Amino acid sequence: MGRVVLDTSAWVEMERSGDKLKELHDDDILIMSPVTLGELLVATRLTKRSNEAVAASIGFIEGILLFAEMAVVDSDTARFYAELKSAATLSGVASGTNDLWIAATAIQHNAELLSYDRRANFSDFPKLRIRS
After folding, report:
1. Which of 22, 63, 95, 127 has the highest count of CB atoms within 10 angstroms of its CB?
2. What is the pTM assigned to this prediction?
């Protein structure tokens, strides 16, 4: 059993596939960052998909909230974020703010991060464990 934070790309892939992702195990505890929830909700508002598709996505998101553990962004998360942001800035690695908050959530909760976003540079973040 492991603790796994799924970033936005992983939740989107799960919705698209309609099934559990191959990287996940039946006994994993899935954790969602509030940042990820925000990104998913923004996508439902900015999409050009049909009303039916948007309703299906909203239903998927509501389902996530029934089984995933919702992380809380607190002062510990902020400390991990500051460490990651500083390291990224000093090393010249381009990293999105939301990606850094999601990675900080994974570190804080001693969880692995599952992402399909190759532009996020998650492998460059110190202390972050990646689920592959």
Report:
1. 95
2. 0.91
Which CATH code is given to the segment(s) 3-130?
A: 3.40.50.1010
Beta strands in 1-128 (DSSP E): 3-6, 29-32, 69-70, 112-114
Q: Which of 51, 40, 48 is nearest to 16 (CA)?
A: 40
**Cβ neighbour number for residue 30 with a 10 Å cutoff:** 21
Based on its alpha-carbon atoms, the radius of gyration of the chain, rounded to whole angstroms, reads 15
pLDDT digits (tens, 9 = 90+) for 51-108: 999 999 999 999 999 999 999 999 999 999 999 999 999 988 888 999 999 999 999 9
Q: Which of 1, 76, 67 is nearest to 32 (CA)?
A: 67
